[in-house]
Amino acid sequence: MIQVNDKYFESYLSEETISNRVSVLADNINNDYKNKNVVFIVILNGAFMFASDLIKKITIPCEVSFVKLSSYHGMQTTGRVDEVIGLNTSITGKDVVIIEDIVDTGITIGKVKKLLQSSQPASLSICTLLFKPEAFHGDIIPEIIGFSIPNDFVVGYGLDYDEKGRNLPCIYKIKAS
């Protein structure tokens, strides 16, 4: 068990479990996007660890770009998305894979996909490490999912609680009271 700020968390996904699943996802992407012009768009801040590990295992030629959005405060989504840093590369006619740490309500990924579709990519897919089907209210289900998890609050491996806990090498879920 660990403490992040005022909350306690218990181990959920180990480093090894995450690493093994990231390897499978990378293999699938390498096969699915062979001979394509791929741009990975990483959603910051949370997806940085997942994206780093995933992209290191990508063997096809690709570009990487970053977009920073914010939709959380503490443990709750704010219900809005604020674009902080925009896309700085052209995606027109390219195959785009959005890399996200977690898709829960679908608010963030819905906004990102809508913004990116206006640039007319050849294709647009979403790759998320974590997906929470119970919390999902959106229309856009990710095509590439690392783990489907219950609607528990999680930290570690890039995921935070009020900006703390991102540096943890594995994922922890909030401990039930």
Explain the overall architecture.
The protein is an alpha/beta fold and 177 residues long. It has a single domain (2-163), classed as 3-Layer(aba) Sandwich (Rossmann fold), CATH 3.40.50.2020. The protein has 3 helices and 10 strands; from the N terminus they run E-E-H-E-H-E-E-E-H-E-E-E-E. It has helices spanning 15-32, 48-56, 107-117, and strands at 2-4, 7-13, 38-44, 62-73, 76-85, 95-103, 123-131, 144-148, 154-155, 171-174. The strands form 2 sheets. Strands 5-4-3-6-7-8 form a 6-stranded mixed beta sheet. Strands 1-2-10-9 form a 4-stranded antiparallel beta sheet. The chain is globular. The model has no long low-confidence stretch (mean pLDDT 90).
Short account of what is shown:
This protein has 177 residues and is of the alpha/beta class.
* The number of domains: 1
SSE succession: EEHEHEEEHEEEE
Mean pLDDT: 90
Helix content: 10-25%
Uncertain spans: none
Rg value:
16 Å
List keywords for this structure.
four-stranded antiparallel beta sheet, globular, 38% strand, 177 residues, six-stranded mixed beta sheet, 3 helices
Task: Describe the secondary structure blueprint for this structure.
Layout: E1 2-4, E2 7-13, H1 15-32, E3 38-44, H2 48-56, E4 62-73, E5 76-85, E6 95-103, H3 107-117, E7 123-131, E8 144-148, E9 154-155, E10 171-174
Parallel strand pairs: 3-4, 3-6, 6-7, 7-8
Antiparallel strand pairs: 1-2, 2-10, 4-5, 9-10
Helix pairs in contact: 1-2
